[in-house]
Design brief:
Elements lengths: L7 E8 L5 H18 L3 E2 L11 E8 L5 H10 L1 H14 L10 E7 L6 E6 L3 E5 L15 E2 L4 E2 L8
Helix pairs in contact: 1-3
């Protein structure tokens, strides 16, 4: 079995009501896509996971997980991006505290890089641990704990 090369994918999500999706999609294509391309984002042709109603989602490929923060910074400093999102926040009535249209740009899929060897658990085999150096972007996690029935490892709450 030949394994396909893994790519790093980011997800751009806007909070837009279901009724306004079509109107937003044409504005997005006309005004926002050119700015996203200038920042190095390339649209990827893969299906997104099912998202809650009221979200507009697009997926992009980037070279590596470490490229995401510079792209975010570039967008946050881009006057045209900020102006468009301010105008769209008024039009679609979903502003963030800074007045911009609510959006999130986050890692969606990253290549697995093997992880670090973990403890050998009796009856379970060898464990591996993963962190940001392996492409996992954990925002908050719970510590490792052991119960009478199971060994429980850390689990990211968001961004992984």
């Amino acid at each position: 079995m030949v394994e396909e090369p893994q790519i790093t994918v980011v997800r751009l999500t806007f909070r837009i009501s279901s009724e306004q999706q079509d109107a937003f999609a044409s504005i997005y294509e006309e005004l926002l896509v050119p700015i996203l391309r200038q920042c190095g984002l390339a649209l990827v042709n893969m299906p997104a996971r099912k998202m809650p109603q009221g979200t507009f989602v697009r997926l992009f490929v980037i070279a590596a997980p470490t490229d995401l923060d510079p792209i975010r910074q570039s967008l946050s400093r881009d006057a045209q991006w900020r102006k468009i999102l301010t105008d769209l926040a008024i039009k679609f009535d979903h502003p963030m505290p800074d007045g911009l249209l609510f959006y999130v740009l986050e890692l969606y899929q990253t290549p697995s890089r093997g992880g670090q060897p973990g403890p050998h658990i009796s009856g379970q085999g060898a464990w591996r641990s993963y962190d940001a150096t392996n492409g996992l972007r954990a925002v908050l996690s719970f510590p490792y704990s052991k119960t009478a029935k199971a060994d429980c490892g850390s689990a990211p709450l968001a961004g992984g």
